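Researcher: Next sequence.
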Amino acid sequence: MSDQLHFGDFLGRIIFVGFGAIGQGVLPLILRHIGCPAARITIVTAEDHGREEAASYGVKFIKERLTRENLRRTLEPLVGRGDFILNLSVDVSSVALVRFAWEKGAMYLDTCIEPWPGGYTDPATPISRRTNYALREEALTLRNSGLHQPTAVLTHGANPGLVSHFVKQALVNIAADLKVDAGKLATREDWAALAQRLDVRCIHVAERDTQVSAIPKEPNEFVNTWSVDGFVSEGSQPAELGWGSHERNFPRDGKRFDFGGGAAIYLMQPGVSTRVRSWAPLAGPYHGFLITHAEAISIADYLTAKLEAGEIYRPSVHYAYHPSDNAVLSVHEFAGRNYLLQDRKRIMMDDITTGIDELGVLLAGHKKNAYWYGSQLSIDEARKLAPHNSATTLQVTAAVLSGMVWAMENPNRGVVEPDEMDYKRCLEICMPYLGPVVGQYTDWTPLSDRERLFPEDLDKSDPWQFKNVRVS
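Model: Next structure:
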């Protein structure tokens, strides 16, 4: 079925910035579903990885690491009016690329908001400025130009990106099951009002990756099912979460931001050193890493409702990520090295023998307790659906494809976040590549089976407070 879907012809050029696991996985999807010949696609990337794959499709490949100094010189001859910059890189400023795209009259999409090198970890930079919150605030200032600009889609991979559409579908499903009138849901205020009526108190982006490699992780090696550099970068940032209006216990190591909209907080420790409890249908209860992600901020912001007397409603939102077991071992070694990256890196792909990536959203606090909605894609099905993909990368590349199609169908919307896009259209494009997409209620809470071995300082009046979710 996925082979038969064609989303129209694109008359411009497509320029890839970066060509790692996601770039290599999305290229065949673009050629399959978007009418853009390989001759009009160019890859600009810092490394040789993927050169053979690009050549097999007849796509031009340029090895050039983009910097502040050479970005314009390198991209100037490649980008013009009506073209599309697809940014799948690390260490290349998203804001700089959006500005360049707009100068040239081109559209843009990325899967996360990237800074220039050092933006995540430079000790000279204040900690609050090394956060995704700060990167998002900077990117959103691009809207202040007041000009009618080409569409620039920020943070549209699996998460951030696809999960924002999962949240909307989950809210609609819960409302239907509780016989709550959802209304027309045309604005962000409508969605926030619905979440408030349902009494959704927190949203976990709950992901458990069980993919197994035939090659064990070796000492001094970081192994992952997607970009090692990307995971290490976001894992080294402070843990961040959207901070809900129901929360009564502020974390001892928590910090508020003194700039921007104030929808999130951060902790004074890296995400890969912060664990939280969560749940997914196949995995059951698990401990995940509280990795900072843009969706934890944008979803919390989007679902904020302003009430009377200056009060607000807002759910707490965070990512609870349990990566593949090889990646967990890699994180443990990485943290033991005081967050200095191992000498060798490996992305699991052809060596994966079995497993799934169970990626969804867990909406909790409502009358039916908690509801998980998302994708349960296996490695076997991913390989049948698309070349050069694992279960993890295909969830991302399908979302990149959907974001590009939506941008091409809406070419003059300026800066757009996933929460502001048509969730039905994006899900329609992604669904053929997501494997089983399921919704399941659960009675599980972060207090389930607690204090069995040791007493704990719990707040049993509300099991969904962050105090009860976080693993000390």
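Model: The chain has two domains: 2-153, 162-391+432-471. The CA atoms of residues 25 and 387 lie 7 Å apart.
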